[in-house]
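Bench log. Compound arrived from synthesis this morning; before running ITC I wanted a structural hypothesis for how HQG sits in the protein. Inputs:
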Amino acid sequence: MNNQLDKNSKFLSYILRHQPEAIGITLDADGWVDINYLILQANQHGKSLSQELIKEIVETNDKKRFTISKDGLKIRAAQGHSTKQVEINYAEQIPPEFLYHGTATRFIDSIKEQGLIAGNRHYVHLSSDEQTANAVGKRHGKPIVLKVKALLMYQQGFKFYLADNGVWLTNTVPTNFLLFD
Ligand code: HQG
């Protein structure tokens, strides 16, 4: 992705996940906003967005972070929200036996004590493959990948959700479901 696209993609992430009020917009509970309204408000706040640019960002995004509604009129972030405006009703899914969570070695002591917690975001984010988890961990420092006994958790009553872009979500992962080796 080129630099300009990357910048605009980060801006969209910021608005659609964290601070919609920064450009005076409100997202609905499912995270959706009208694309025309988003463009209008972004432009009024000195950010030049257009239909074409949004289409290009959505299509070229490496992690498929954004979803356009079937009628083509609305956009939302697939996951990763921290804004209280949004509470997506994700469909519950049965997870595979194991899922993976990438983190940094400096968090390990705390994770051993508390398990995985969502922090600012609404959910703990899990990946179905180790490679993706490793890339997620790298964002925070020296990466380490934890294996999560997802199916066992599910069997014991924990709920799992799959976002539009294949990222797995759950509220919390207690330590006894984590493999640290
Ligand atoms: C850590 C990216 C101490 C957790 C990725 C993580 C993902 C703890 C950090 C998505 C802890 C939170 C989410 C505990 C968890 N003590 N640290 N008890 N429990 N942590 O960024 O999972 O590029 O909020 O391990 O692809 O890194 O934004 O979560 O290191 O899907 O599209 O606290 O964000 O997507 O960091 O990443 P984050 P994450 P995007």
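What the model suggests: DSSP finds six helices and nine strands in the chain. The pocket of HQG is lined by residues 63, 65, 80, 103-104, 107, 110-111, 114, 116-117, 119-121, 125, 136, 139-140, 167 (CB under 6 Å).
ITC booked for Thursday regardless.
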